[in-house]
Amino acid sequence: MYKNIESLRSKADIVKLSEYQLKEYKKCKEDVFYFIKKYATVNNYDKAVPIDLYKYKKAYISNILNYNKNLVLWARQFGLTTINTYIYMWYVLFHENYKVCIYSINTNNRNRRYEVFKSYLQTIPLWMQKPIIQCNKKHIEFSKYSSVDFLNNNPKSFNPKLYNLIIFDDFCFYNDKKANELYNRITKYYEEDNKFKTVFSTTGIAYDSMFYKIWKSNKYKKSIANWKSTPETNNKKWKEDKMKYMDINEFDNEYEFSKIKEIK
Q1: DSSP strand E in 143-192: where?
Q2: Which of 34, 42, 74, 264 is 20 to 30 A distant from 121 in Cα terms?
Q3: How many structural domains is the chain composed of?
């Protein structure tokens, strides 16, 4: 129990794993897909339901595993925050001395990402969790020197060298100055050390953004999902329902991405 939260493990909690739990832990450590498929859930009308690992989600997870430079553009409400959360959760739970940074556009988004991670962590069995050493809205430190930082600080004070995995959340909507400074810092660091992973992540597109410039440069591995990427949304009625509340340009920017050649 960490700070009176029974579903979070503290360093005072001594857990002896059963034979079954040891096997499960080993399976999860060796296979992020197994971990997400069996243990990841999302709230649906106050009920925890398993995540549907559609083709585009599996492709994105594979990109993270196999490539250090990643771009991800998904339609809104297609589960990007959830998948990102479980991916970096897997890294910190099953790897020693693994440092993650979630960089957000503002303080409110930063706090939301922290709350999402904390709530999803509580759905993971206590015996599978690493003990929490320290926890606040900017930093969660686990045993065996793994941690997650939630940042939205000045780019000039951001040090990529501290992390194994950096996810820039909603990067498409950073102002130009901030986006350029962060991208330049990442690019400079890659010239010195190419072993860390970066994800420029966004739901919805702005074609005058730094994100789109990076996309067109073809220097990063890309993952994309628009409204046609799931069986629930790939139908005329779904699009018509959305179009009741937005014009064609808004729909394109949030769900279609007509200017992105990879979607065709």
Answers
A1: 147-151, 165-168
A2: 74
A3: 1
